[in-house]
Design goal:
Blueprint lengths: L13 H12 L2 H7 L5 H9 L7 H11 L6 H13 L3 H12 L8 H10 L5 H15 L4
Helix pairs in contact: 1-2, 1-4, 3-4, 4-6, 5-6, 6-7, 6-8
């Protein structure tokens, strides 16, 4: 991803703005139904602004939006720091999913531990996503 100027930091599509509002409300059904509509410019916003937002929900949304995308080296480093330091379990999980995606193929112990721990958590969506990630890595469970 390219570096953004200060003037670019507030540039998001209408889809991304709606996704941010939905995430703030905790409307993850809306987010899941519409996340594929983010643009390359939106991804730059999520990388450069969203991952650093004070809101757990916006950081969670931002990481989710970056799953399967090409990300800048600095963003990869930020996601790695988030694995260890973010106060939100959901954000740490989403960062692990982004890094573990086949585009980045991070199989480090911390990434795999976060994904494995989600299997026993209370969040159904995280459990399902963790199961999908582990099946991709290990093949379907017997």
């Amino acid at each position: 991803m390219t570096e953004m100027t200060d003037a670019d930091l507030d540039v998001r599509s209408e889809t991304a703005l709606r996704l941010c509002h939905a995430a703030e409300r905790g409307d993850w059904v809306y987010v899941d139904d519409n996340i594929k509509g983010v643009t390359q410019l939106d991804c730059q916003w999520f990388e450069n602004v969203g991952l650093s937002d004070a809101s757990d929900n916006i950081r969670d949304l931002s990481a989710t939006a970056l799953e399967g995308k090409n990300i800048a080296y600095n963003t990869k480093l930020r996601l790695e720091r988030m694995l260890l330091n973010d106060p939100s379990e959901a954000v740490r999980f989403r960062a692990a999913i982004v890094l573990n995606h086949p585009k980045h193929n991070d199989r480090s112990p911390v990434v795999l531990d976060i994904i494995n721990n989600a299997l026993t958590g209370t969040d159904d969506a995280m459990r399902k996503k963790a199961q999908e990630a582990l099946e991709r890595l290990n093949g379907p469970a017997a």
